[in-house]
Design a protein that fits this description.
Layout lengths: L1 E6 L4 H11 L5 E8 L3 H11 L3 E4 L2 H9 L7 E4 L3 H9 L3 E4 L7 H9 L3 E4 L2 H18 L3 E3 L2 H10 L7 E8 L17 H4 L9 H9 L1 H13 L7 E5 L5 E7 L4 E5 L5 H9 L31 H11 L3 H17 L7 H10 L10 H17 L2
Parallel strand pairs: 1-2, 1-5, 2-3, 3-4, 5-6, 6-7, 8-9
Antiparallel strand pairs: 8-10, 10-11
Helix pairs in contact: 2-3, 4-5, 5-6, 6-10, 6-13, 10-12, 13-14, 13-15
Length: 381
Amino acid sequence: MKRVVVLGSTGSVGKQTLDVLRGLRDSFDVVGLSGNSNSDLLAEQVREFGPDAVAVGSERSSRQVSSNLDGREITLLSGPGSLVDLIERLEPQIVVQAVSGAVGLPSSMAAIEQGARLALANKESLVMAGHLLMPLAAARGAEIIPVDSEHSAIFQCLQGCGGRSARRIFLTASGGPFVDTPIDDLRKVTPEEAAHHPTWNMGGKITIDSATMMNKALEIVEARWLFGLEPAQIEVIVHRQSIVHSMVEFADGSILAQMGNPDMRVPIRYALTHPDRPDLARDYFDFDRWSRLTFEPPDRTRFPAIDLGFDAARKGGLHGAVLNAANEEGVGLFLKGLIPFDEISKRVSLVLGKTKHIQSPTLEEVLAADRWAREESIRCT
């Protein structure tokens, strides 16, 4: 029985992770959970899985969870450092990092410090501090296995092939809901329209990122660190059906693609069970349904975020942290109705242009850049 901690268990990826773990009860023991504001759901998960400890964002949430546990004895941790505390107390073998945003970075580092397998859905950790996390993982003997469908696909294609023989990778993108919308109309897009993804069922913030293709910008930086690639070895291609999750081209000219139905449970399950593939599929692939697959280059005028991602990947240093932070704030402003949809990428570009270059920043410098970028994104015009 492998000890598993699921961070962000009440979010989209976290809920799907627990759904996967329901089918793997003979192999995995859920010893820790964390949630933010959905106290009722977190308490329900605690009653079902019986973890040893739970982390929540505030003392108020802790009281709410406790009141819903019918007297069940459990260690409740709260506050900004609770995720790290949870990992250090429980010493799990696997940490599923499904927390959204920059707040996930410290707990990702804590998991690696413990030498645990980090099943990583929080792309922000590598975007912000890949230069710190990858060497730390090598030193601690920790595995980082991606949960993002694109990076999971690349990871799977590289198994047994030798990373040095990879010539380039193709990150596929659905194009989101506005791939055919006239560019002049993007300024009128509402949060409700942007939240409707054509092929995937994802969390709120990442769905907006898919609509701007900022998720692809972040994935470019993530792939640069995760697979040790130069930005010139990374390409983005629009694949509207979301069946080919990404591809690797090798030095001999062959291309391997990882395909499957658009279901996050598949990469989640692989990150947990790698290198094994247990027979747990619910919906096997139907070629009658997907008889036509298309690929096309992205419109970089419509999606300027793609070039921002390549720029951040080339420059390194603090640019990944600034890219992520400015985007998080921009998405927040858009969802509040304070800026139009097409302003998100424009603000990110403005803040990136003001970023101080530090070649190998410390964690403290990364976190300081994160704070600066958020403030700068809010006040810039």
